[in-house]
Structures are given as C-alpha cells and as structure tokens.
C-alpha cells in the first residue's frame, strides 16, 4: 500500500537549542529562502518545534510568512487542564496559546525523562481531547534491531496508544518513525530499510483505522539535504522529522524542498 498522495510534512525539532538571538536569525534566514523560492502549502506542511519558552515568539515571527509554518511544542504534560502541577504545560494551555501541534513519545523523552507507556498514553489522550495534532514518535534501539525485534517494537508502540484514540481522532495523528540508533549519530537507515518499516507501519495502521491509508508517516534520524531526495522518493515516507539539520536554515529549507518537489 502506498501513501504517496499524502501531503508531506517536514518538521524541525530544535530540541534544547538554540539561544533566542540565534533562533531569530535562523527564522529570518529560513523566511528569506521561502520568499526567494516559495514552497507551496499544498506541496509540504512545514513546522518547527522550539523550546517551550520560545513557542509564541517563534509563532509571531512566522506570521508574516507567505505560507503557514506550524509552531510545534516538543512535549506536554501528562496532566490535563489547569492545576497545581509546578513546571508543567498542559494540552489545554498549549491550545489556549494557539499552539496546535505537539511531539509526543520522542525517544529522548522516553529514554532520558522516563516517559513510559502510561505517560505517553496520557499525553496522547490529553492532546487529542484538547484538539491538538500529534506527531507521535516511535522507533527501535540498535539492540532491538540487531535482535530482529524492530518491527515488533515499533508496531507495539503504535498499539500502545490505540485505547486512547477515538476513531474520529486518527486524522489528528502523524507518525514519526525514528530508529534510535540513527538520531543525532549521522547514521541514516537505508531508504530500503526505512521504506520497509514505513510500509509495515502503514499496514499496521490500516488494520487499526480506515484513516491509516491517509496518515503521514515521517522518517527521522540524521536526515540532511544529501539524503532527503532518496528518502522522499520512497512511497511510504511522507516527510521528515529533522533534528540537527533543522538548526541550519539552508539545510532545513533544502529538506523541505526535496519532499515538496518529490511527492
Ligand atoms: C530527532 O531527534 O528527532 C532527530 C531526528 O534528530 P537528528 O536529525 O539530529 O538525527
């Protein structure tokens, strides 16, 4: 099954970077590139995920762009609504601040900050109930891949959230397949391996929901301009979640351009 009619997404995950002045410059450079060579909204959804305190600044800076650039939160609280939860930001508070997209389940959250299945599930449930669109990250470790468990691990991570996704909410979910061993390492899954996993993910999604055929499945893990076209050519790779390369305006622009032109 192919998801090639799906509008691709290219999302930059800035992680705990950069300083505000550098972020401002990065956005200005990116906007300039977009102005010189526009990427049509229908050709590619584009988003950036800055640190939480910069969400609204970044959103403001993109207001005068000739197209929509989504501002994406990198995470949210497992607690819903408002209340005495020091340091937390809920789905409802993001929505109230006009932030409509959020990453959930990034491997750094799972591995470093202890986001286990229950926490990830609660975050997904809260985000969907608040009307946010989720970029749900899944991916196997090197040990799991070498043990031949990659598919099983990834499909289980998708099954982990099915109990909290209502049938009409699946179209608010974008999947990001990010093999952990490829994140920030310079190692990319080969286009063949990535496509094979994406096809399995799509098969799994189609068994869960009729939306599965239309859902975007992004690849993440050392995506750069040099490998973007090859990845974009794979029928079930509907975009990229980009870490390191999104901190350089030209690199990020070229990746978005690769997906916009290829799909
Ligand atoms: C990520 O952390 O989501 C990511 C894909 O990082 P990088 O592109 O740097 O591998």
Automatic annotation (TrEMBL):
Residues holding substrate: 13-15, 184, 222, 243-244
Predominant localisation class: cytoplasm
Superkingdom assignment: Bacteria
A Gene Ontology molecular function term of the record: triose-phosphate isomerase activity
Entry keyword set: Cytoplasm, Gluconeogenesis, Glycolysis, Isomerase
EC number in record: 5.3.1.1
InterPro entries the UniProt entry points to: Aldolase_TIM, TIM_sf, TrioseP_Isoase_bac/euk, Triosephosphate_isomerase, Triosephosphate_isomerase_AS
CDD domains documented for this protein: TIM
Biological processes annotated in GO: gluconeogenesis; glyceraldehyde-3-phosphate biosynthetic process; glycerol catabolic process; glycolytic process
Subcellular location per the Swiss-Prot or TrEMBL entry: Cytoplasm
Gene Ontology cellular component annotations, sorted alphabetically: cytosol
Pathway where this protein functions: Carbohydrate degradation; glycolysis; D-glyceraldehyde 3-phosphate from glycerone phosphate: step 1/1; Carbohydrate metabolism; erythritol degradation; Carbohydrate biosynthesis; gluconeogenesis
Active-site residues, Swiss-Prot/TrEMBL: 106 (electrophile), 178 (proton acceptor)
Catalytic reaction annotation: D-glyceraldehyde 3-phosphate = dihydroxyacetone phosphate
Annotated Gene3D superfamilies: Aldolase class I
Keyword Kinase attributed: no
Functional note: Involved in the gluconeogenesis. Catalyzes stereospecifically the conversion of dihydroxyacetone phosphate (DHAP) to D-glyceraldehyde-3-phosphate (G3P).
Protein name: Triosephosphate isomerase
Lineage: Bacteria, Pseudomonadati, Pseudomonadota, Gammaproteobacteria, Moraxellales
